[in-house]
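Listing S7. Sequence submitted for prediction.
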Amino acid sequence: DSNKLASKEVTTAAVEQAIVVAAGIGAIAGWTLGLLGPFFFFMNKFGFLRCSLFLASKRASVPPDTSSDATSMLGQRAVLRGNGRISTRASGARRVRASGTVGVQAREAKWAPGFEAPKHLDGTLPADFGFDPLGLGVMPDRLKWFRESELVHSRWAMLGVAGILAQEIAKPDVFFYDAAAKMELPFDIRGLLAAEFLMMHFVENLRMQDFKKLNSVNQDPVFKGNKLPDHEPGYPGGIFAPFIPGDLEELKVKELKNGRLAMVAFVGMIVAAQVTGKGPIANLVDHLSSPMTNLFIGVSPGCAIPPSVDYQGITIPTPCLPLWPGA
């Protein structure tokens, strides 16, 4: 029996070590691709692609038709292609004239230079960089809903990330993950949850009705004097935007850029908190104190937070994400 027990312990230790090694190899591979990816994109954008176009233009034997409509468009620049055609680039699609025929080509995907953006991403949406490798937004209705969802999640993520950082700066001794469970309330938490449920249901129902039929619920159903102006989906304006500090279209792009970054940051903060049991600033300080030892792959796989918390006699499950053995 002792031999079997020892053999089982050795096997368990070997499996744990294999998991740690595999996680380390995966992390190193991911970091390597993350470092080399921008380099290859840079070379593709400014090196190989430009060199190919230059050599192709030198080999072109057919002079371009400078009198054609393709080169007379204002605000566009002509690019000589290897087959003697002239393509004019605008902010969206490219028009190409060859043998008296004018066609429209897909625009370049800004997130991957050298590749074409999907046809359904034509650049009309704010912060559209041509990213949809799975084709999830091919259907117009679905694309509209995805944009609405992205806006909502971006705004919640920005509030969440800002709250986590502000709380850790103000009270670094409090772990944000279980901070709410340590707060004393003068009333029953179940009453607060019921009130939040009713209010959020009312607000979200109005938002859904506005999404289905734009500007159909601009007037307050109770206080008739309160009314929103006609607006675009996701941008109600009025009392929700008492002033606009700049160009609205530019602000839309900035909001989505920051919102996408916040969503990624929030997921990273949650995963790191579950692994280390610390907040993002504490993890950053640990890493800076010893960059070569306090790494993500140096953390033993497991869940550093309790599986549940008790608050006012209510047990609230707090499971870890299914990323680590034993989570």
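Caption to Listing S7: primary sequence and predicted structure tokens for the chain studied. The longest strand covers residues 94-98. Residues 51 and 275 are 47 Å apart (CA to CA).
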